[in-house]
């Protein structure tokens, strides 16, 4: 059946990197029978400029109707003076909540050719391949009550609520075990069960769900130790699953183990594996329009879409291998260039991946 992909280029380098991802999708369509329909929509600052909203009704209709969404990036200095309610980032948050994208997948994969980009020693990070799974729509970022109040003595007090219901933990735990089944069969659940009752429940529920997956190894780790272990010996991890705030912090830490945010894709999934796929980096206004942005995180987001939403692991592997091949050929965009590599533009990198795909 033809898959409908809503394409939301967004702001800054968004349109440039999305162009290259589209070339890759079209190559799969033309060479490998991937039946796909693409439709563009507005989001972020560019949507605000045209419609007065960072997430116009037309875009909402488009994404509701699509099988998956491919997003570039949003934001930029131009829109910083705007009221929070219409800032570009509201477009992203709106998409996540509108589509109930509760499972955020953040791989941290280090390519052998880019080992030097990591600030850690090569022996600590070489071969690194971690998947961090972050619960995205619950926890302390959404819990009520929240706010800042003034006490009787005149002092102000800020408060937020960490809340997770059993069903929220259960569904993300299932995702973790199912993803691990496609990888190295290990799940590490991260909590702070020694201090926070809410995460004690988290641990209980993950343990219960784990019994349904007897061939996946489950371990638990306190978040402070997890942060330490990620830097000390990151290769011990396969899939890490955790709540919204811990996942926010740990996934950025894991990303930096690879040294290059411009190489890392991400996915946010709903209960039916419909997903929004995007690079983890932002709109990079400092290099926008120069044709030098690295499109690989966006291209790898397409690979994740094929793997996690469309069950097309074969096509996903082809993209991963084509990216690998381009790097092995010594091609680099400026952000990842080093001695003995050839610096290429955004579109040259996209073309190299397409050519690798055609030959695979
Ligand atoms: P950023 O990720 O846009 O850029 C950080 C640095 O990395 C910059 O020097 C940039 O040039 C470089 N960089 C990022 N992606 C690159 C790529 N593909 N190729 C080459 N170099 C790349 O983060 P920032 O500068 O903090 O934020 C810029 C804007 O992006 C802000 O408005 C921010 O709110 C927004 N933002 C959006 C998202 C998103 O859309 N998901 C995420 C983060 C930041």
Please give the structural blueprint.
Blueprint: E1 3-10, H1 14-32, E2 36-40, H2 45-51, H3 57-65, E3 68-73, H4 88-98, E4 103-109, H5 122-125, E5 129-135, E6 147-150, E7 156-159, H6 166-181, E8 186-191, H7 197-210, E9 217-222, H8 223-232, E10 239-242, H9 244-258, E11 265-269, E12 275-279, H10 296-308, H11 313-328, E13 331-332, E14 342-343, H12 346-358
Parallel strand pairs: 1-2, 1-3, 3-12, 5-10, 8-9, 8-10, 13-14
Antiparallel strand pairs: 4-5, 4-11, 6-7, 11-12
Bound molecules: nicotinamide-adenine-dinucleotide (NAD).
Report on this model:
- The chain is an alpha/beta fold and 360 residues long.
- Helix content is 41%, strand content 20%.
- It has helices spanning 14-32, 45-51, 57-65, 88-98, 122-125, 166-181, 197-210, 223-232, 244-258, 296-308, 313-328, 346-358, and strands at 3-10, 36-40, 68-73, 103-109, 129-135, 147-150, 156-159, 186-191, 217-222, 239-242, 265-269, 275-279, 331-332, 342-343.
- The strands form 3 sheets. It has a 10-stranded mixed sheet with strand order 2-1-3-12-11-4-5-10-8-9, with helices on both faces. Strands 6-7 form a two-stranded antiparallel ribbon.
- β11 (265-269) and β12 form a beta hairpin.
- The model has no long low-confidence stretch (mean pLDDT 96).
- The chain binds nicotinamide-adenine-dinucleotide.
- Nicotinamide-adenine-dinucleotide is lined by residues 13, 17, 73-76, 89, 92, 261-262, 278, 281-287, 293-294, 297, 335.
């Amino acid at each position: 059946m033809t898959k409908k992909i809503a394409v939301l280029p967004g702001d800054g380098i968004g349109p440039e990197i999305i162009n290259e991802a589209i070339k890759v999708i079209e190559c799969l369509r033309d060479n490998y029978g991937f039946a796909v329909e693409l439709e563009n929509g507005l989001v972020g600052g560019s949507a605000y400029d045209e419609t007065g909203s960072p997430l116009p009704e037309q875009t909402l209709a488009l994404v509701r109707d699509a099988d998956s969404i491919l997003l570039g990036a949003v934001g930029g200095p131009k829109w910083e003076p705007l009221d929070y309610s219409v800032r570009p980032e509201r477009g992203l948050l709106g998409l996540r909540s509108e589509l109930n994208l509760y499972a955020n997948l953040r791989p941290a994969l280090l390519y052998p050719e880019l080992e030097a980009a990591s600030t850690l020693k090569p022996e600590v990070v070489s071969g690194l391949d971690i998947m961090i799974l972050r619960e995205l729509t619950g926890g302390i970022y959404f819990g009520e009550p929240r706010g800042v109040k003034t006490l009787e003595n005149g002092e102000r007090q800020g408060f937020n609520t960490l809340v997770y219901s059993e069903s929220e933990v259960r569904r993300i735990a299932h995702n973790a075990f199912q993803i691990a089944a496609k990888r190295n069969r290990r799940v590490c659940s991260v909590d702070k069960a020694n201090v926070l009752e809410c995460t004690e429940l988290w641990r209980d529920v993950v343990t219960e769900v784990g019994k349904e997956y007897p061939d996946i190894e489950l371990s638990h780790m306190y978040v402070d130790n997890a942060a330490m272990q990620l830097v000390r010996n990151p290769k011990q991890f396969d899939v890490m699953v955790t709540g919204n705030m811990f996942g926010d912090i740990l996934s950025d830490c894991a990303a930096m183990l690879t040294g290059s945010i411009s190489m890392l894709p991400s996915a946010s999934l709903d209960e039916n594996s419909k997903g929004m796929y995007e690079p983890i980096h932002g709109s990079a206004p400092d290099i926008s329009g120069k044709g030098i942005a690295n499109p690989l995180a966006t291209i790898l987001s397409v690979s994740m879409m094929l793997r996690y939403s469309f069950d097309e692991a074969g096509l996903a592997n082809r993209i991963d291998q084509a990216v690998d091949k381009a790097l092995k050929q010594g091609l680099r965009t400026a952000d990842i260039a080093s001695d003995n590599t050839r610096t290429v533009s955004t579109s040259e990198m996209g073309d190299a991946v397409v050519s690798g795909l055609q030959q695979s």
